[in-house]
Specification:
273 residues; alpha/beta; Rossmann fold; seven-stranded parallel beta sheet; 9 helices; 9 strands; disordered C terminus
Length: 273
């Protein structure tokens, strides 16, 4: 297969969670997947799994918050004639108040969610524009429709990603290239485990499976839809976030924060104002 015939899908944050599932499902569709993340051991294990299932992939160890490493990856993407899909999935969350946390993790979140997405997307669109085909898939969150204490940067950067994708969708219309943003709700991955957040704070029926979220996202991407919100429950929440005035949303957010703080501290929640 020549470089112009093969299809390359680049997946960031591929070492775990949704990124690993995107990689599996794209490889099963016949894409040669570039597995991009920092943890080489995790990537090698995933690559072995994909190859054992008959898929093709390449391990690309890269810290997207490092300017030099990010630039090198952008150069590779821009030069890859077979580029067909870019999944901007890499990300992480926080459970600390912005003013109380050190600036390092906040800076890293902005670099990863925003700057890396900008630069990788720009590199990919240069190549996709020349080819007259390609798909950009950005992984945001239903949290992007809200704002929440202890999640200020996460909500803000995911809101930016939603807006950014909407703009791209309008700009790319008629070019053979599309941009889609997926906004999952609570999904069963190691995301919340890394944060040290107990799943008991969220009702069981709110949790989605990673394979379900990824399948819905890829189906929306294939159809050229600009936004995908898996499951009707989260579609409703997103609509509420868009429609309800802030004087209603903000007290609800504060009450939820106090309830979760109380659960974590094994205390009885204090009454809301």
């Amino acid at each position: 297969m020549t470089s112009t015939e093969r299809r390359i899908a680049v997946v960031t944050g591929a070492s775990a969670g949704l990124g690993a599932e995107f990689s599996r499902q794209l490889a099963a569709r016949g894409e040669c997947v570039w597995l991009v993340a920092r943890r080489e051991d995790r990537l090698e294990a995933l690559a072995e799994e994909i190859r054992a299932a008959g898929g093709a992939c390449e391990v690309v160890v890269c810290d997207l918050t490092d300017d030099v490493q990010l630039a090198a990856l952008c150069d590779r993407i821009a030069a890859e004639e077979g580029l067909s899909v870019l999944v901007n999935n890499a990300g992480f969350g926080s459970k600390s108040r912005f003013a109380d946390s050190t600036v390092g993790p906040q800076d890293a979140m902005a670099r990863l969610h925003v700057l890396a997405t900008v630069r990788l997307t720009h590199a990919a669109l240069g190549r996709m524009g020349q080819n007259g085909r390609g798909r950009i898939l950005n992984v945001a969150s239903v949290a992007g429709f809200f704002q929440s204490p202890t999640d200020v940067m996460y909500c803000s950067t995911k809101a930016w990603m939603i807006s950014f994708t909407e703009g791209l969708c309008l700009e790319l219309d008629g070019m053979g290239v599309s941009a889609t943003v997926v906004c999952p709700g609570f999904t069963i991955t190691e995301f919340h485990d890394v944060l040290g957040v107990s799943r008991s704070t969220v009702p069981k029926h709110h949790w989605l499976k990673a394979d379900y979220v990824v399948a819905k996202a890829l189906a929306a991407m294939d159809r050229g839809k600009w936004i995908c919100i898996p499951h009707w429950r989260y579609k409703l929440y997103a609509m509420i976030g868009n429609v309800l005035p802030k004087w209603i949303l903000h007290p609800l957010s504060r009450r939820r924060r106090r309830r979760n703080d109380a659960i974590r501290a094994n205390e009885t929640p204090t009454p809301s104002d």
